[in-house]
């Protein structure tokens, strides 16, 4: 497939929140979309929700009624895989379960025309393991949309080991048509954005066990200019998502860092949607209100786990959260998961609410000077252990007087 295939028709598998957003992205970009879900009732509800969104956009004056009608007309339900045989692209948007995605890709591979591109909207899973169950691994890639997909600008395009360059080009061209900011990422657990987020989140959880409180961590992060701190983010996303995933996987539930989350979930405090999470929310309000009950719970859990609490100031909170991002970003750059540091910054500016005036985590680190970053990481490793071991790339660049911006990786 040397020539870039043109994507005129697409199909989306899954009528959950992500599926709905992706269908709208495609329809808004002028693509004819067929929509499948194994639950007909859910598909019907999802179509209604999409129609409501378009009606809302008309009321807001964002589009006129004729445009809303044209977008609705591009979306049609499909009964089975045979009905979508002629689609140029299929995007699978079911929940994060490798076996389920592999089963879907086997069926898609058998049912779709040979030139069709098969994409998974996965946030973490191995694209190569998904491609391996098909006879067309060169036409398989990841299209990681961010929720809500029809609003968030970022699109991580995940390149598998065998993804053809023409298929990547077709995805980039589609991203442009959808008005997305697209970044190509290599295949690893969590790709660029979520792999770094995992380290940042772990650090924020360690901070509350060692002596901070959730609202203090958020205040320090928001004071730096982030759209929201990690604990407000958990409340928005739903604290129960990771909790249920750990239950399902049968592992990770006993890690000290997730004990506060576990207690909150056991109390039914799932975040904004349940009115209580790390914060309290009045009925119908999204305003996060400080809840002393959560502070008391954090103190109980950290005592139970044997932590000697100490005062932690906003400077330390900020330094540890930012350096957790930077150190993992350096590993991602060194491994060629990102081709340049600007791609990592683009992901963080457009998908994770990093303050625009700071240019992204890698640009921020370059501005501090990598010798300074290296010294701070070595200090943290001395105080808090091996997970702060500086990335080899930081050691090399600091020694050579270079910056992250000087690194270019060839794919």
TrEMBL record:
- SUPFAM superfamilies the record matches: 6-phosphogluconate dehydrogenase C-terminal domain-like, NAD(P)-binding Rossmann-fold domains
Q: Name one GO molecular function term.
A: oxidoreductase activity, acting on the CH-OH group of donors, NAD or NADP as acceptor
**Where's the 3-hydroxyacyl-CoA dehydrogenase C-terminal domain?**
190-281, 317-402
* Signal peptide as annotated in the record: none
Keyword annotations of the record: Isomerase, Lyase, Multifunctional enzyme, NAD, Oxidoreductase
Task: Report any one BP term from Gene Ontology.
Answer: fatty acid metabolic process
Q: What protein is this chain from? A: Peroxisomal bifunctional enzyme
Tell whether Isomerase is among the UniProt keywords. yes
3-hydroxyacyl-CoA dehydrogenase NAD binding domain residues are 10-187
Give a yes or no for keyword Transferase in this entry: no
What are the EC numbers?
Answer: 4.2.1.17
Native species: Pseudomonas knackmussii (strain DSM 6978 / CCUG 54928 / LMG 23759 / B13)
Q: Where are the transmembrane segments?
A: none
Q: Name one Pfam family in it.
A: 3HCDH_N
Look up the domain of life of the source: Bacteria
């Amino acid at each position: 497939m040397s020539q870039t295939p043109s994507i005129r028709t697409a199909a989306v598998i899954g009528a959950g929140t992500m599926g709905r957003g992706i269908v709208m992205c495609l329809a808004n970009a002028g693509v004819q979309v067929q929509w499948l879900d194994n639950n007909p009732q859910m598909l019907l509800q999802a179509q209604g929700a999409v129609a409501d969104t378009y009606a809302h956009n008309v009321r807001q004056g964002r589009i006129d009624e004729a445009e809303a009608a044209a977008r609705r007309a591009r979306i049609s339900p499909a009964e089975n895989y045979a009905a979508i045989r002629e689609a140029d692209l299929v995007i699978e948007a079911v929940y994060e379960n490798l076996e389920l995605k592999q089963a879907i890709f086997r069926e898609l591979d058998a049912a779709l025309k040979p030139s069709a591109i098969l994409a998974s909207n996965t946030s973490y899973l191995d694209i190569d393991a998904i491609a391996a169950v098909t006879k067309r691994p060169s036409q398989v890639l990841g299209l990681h949309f961010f929720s809500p997909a029809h609003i968030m600008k970022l699109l991580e395009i995940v390149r598998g080991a065998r993804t053809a360059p023409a298929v990547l080009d077709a995805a980039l061209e589609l991203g442009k048509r959808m008005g997305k900011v697209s970044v190509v990422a290599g295949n690893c657990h969590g790709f660029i954005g979520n792999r770094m987020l995992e380290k940042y989140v772990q650090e924020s959880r360690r901070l509350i066990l060692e002596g901070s409180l959730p609202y203090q961590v958020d205040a320090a992060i928001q004071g730096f200019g982030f759209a929201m701190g990690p604990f407000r983010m958990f409340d928005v996303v739903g604290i129960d998502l990771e909790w249920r995933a750990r239950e399902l996987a049968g592992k990770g539930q006993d890690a000290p860092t997730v004990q506060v989350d576990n207690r909150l979930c056991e109390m039914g405090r799932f975040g904004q949607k349940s009115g209580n999470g790390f914060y309290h929310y009045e009925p119908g309000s999204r305003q996060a209100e400080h809840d002393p009950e959560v502070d008391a719970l954090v103190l109980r859990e950290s005592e139970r786990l044997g932590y000697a609490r100490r005062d932690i100031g906003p400077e330390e909170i900020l330094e540890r959260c930012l350096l957790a991002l930077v150190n993992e970003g350096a590993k991602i750059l060194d491994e060629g998961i990102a081709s340049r540091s600007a791609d990592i910054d683009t992901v963080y500016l457009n998908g994770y609410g990093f303050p625009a005036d700071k240019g992204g985590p890698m640009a921020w680190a370059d501005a501090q000077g990598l010798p300074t970053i290296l010294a701070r990481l070595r200090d943290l490793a001395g105080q808090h252990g091996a997970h702060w071991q500086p990335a080899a790339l930081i050691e090399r660049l600091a020694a050579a007087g270079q910056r992250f911006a000087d690194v270019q990786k060839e794919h």
